[in-house]
Design brief:
single chain; 426 residues; alpha+beta; 3-stranded mixed beta sheet; 34% helix; disordered N terminus; disordered C terminus
Amino acid sequence: MSKFKDNNNIAKTIEQLTGQKTDTKEGSEAFSYLMPTMQRLYNLISPNQQTIQPTNLIYFNSNEEYDDNAYFAQLIDLYNNASATFSNIIDLRRNMLIGTGLMPVVENDAATLEFLNKPNEYGESLVEIWEKLCFDFSLFESFALECLYSPKNKGTIASVIHHSPDVVRAVANDNPNLPYVNVFQLSRNWAKTNKHGKYVKQAYSGMPIAAWNPYNWAADGARQLLVTKRYSAGNDVYTIPSYNSILNYVELDAQLARYSLSTVSKGFVPQTIVTLNGNPDKKTKDEFVNKFKNRYSGPDAERILFIWTTDENQKPIIANFAASDVTPMLQALNQISAEKISSGLGCTPELAGLVVGGQSNLQSDYNKLAISYGYYYKRLILPMQLQMIRGLDKIMIVNGLSKLKVTTPPLMLDLPTQSAQTPKTI
């Protein structure tokens, strides 16, 4: 088979492949193209870690830029501003993780209950912090607790302080062959890009804090950071959430909402095309359009497309723009994004709030919800709870207290019951 060098010109390439001269219309010879090339997924792994010199700080970059240190900020932005389906399931995971709250395994253990309900310097008890940890684990699949050791009872932990994972960055181990973190840094301004709030100057270093190691509590200044996270292959320092592969569908859901809003509020699709003669410069065109808008006000003024031709003898032409109905495509994309998001989070459509099969039936829907809820708890929530409890039990063991437990009750709904009607006496 003969091979032809692709010179980015359609006409020449077709002639080389077919041996026949093409009928090229005026202007098409200037048209060029670039064929997309397939890339291996292992070259595109995202988010990625990046060790910054000379501080050895490990960046955790988003799916959008390679050095923005903003993956956690991206997740927060997607939760707050993107997809209702995504945020709804994250909230569901959080609420199921919270369950009935932290309780000691040894029932009515007074010392453990006192520690769980004792407020820290900021007035938060571990019972209250538990709810924050459940949200962190739901969204980031990790959590961080600052542990302050007691100056009196040496080697025991006096109080704990919550830190959201987005404020935590790791410092690389001095041995480049070891992934284990000995020191973290804390800052609220790590992200280079402003994905979830007012712009702030990016931080390149933060407040150092030693990693959890109760044997070194004195050398570490009686202050350590306990990080509990789900292990993800190839990423020993930070956790890539198990749902990372569906973030494009979360963004798609957001873009569909923005498109619908733009169509309604700004008339995204033009309804009328006005063709004018001559081809003036851009300034003249802008002045004409502005004058038209001043005289023809109202919502339809934004839905007119102006076209200038090079034929100076042509009279202005006004024509209706027959826009194609994109409703079926939007409905399909909405359905696909919702299904992919719920599937990527291990959730059934019923738990995601999606109506399956068209019509709704109260009794059958309840059965589906109850079964889905129980399955989701056993398959996903229970393993997450156990991992979170194992992390907190490290603190309890150091303090000589009872280990902890948490219970998530099954889904219970009050359904209307049919009561026998008393027959009327005639």
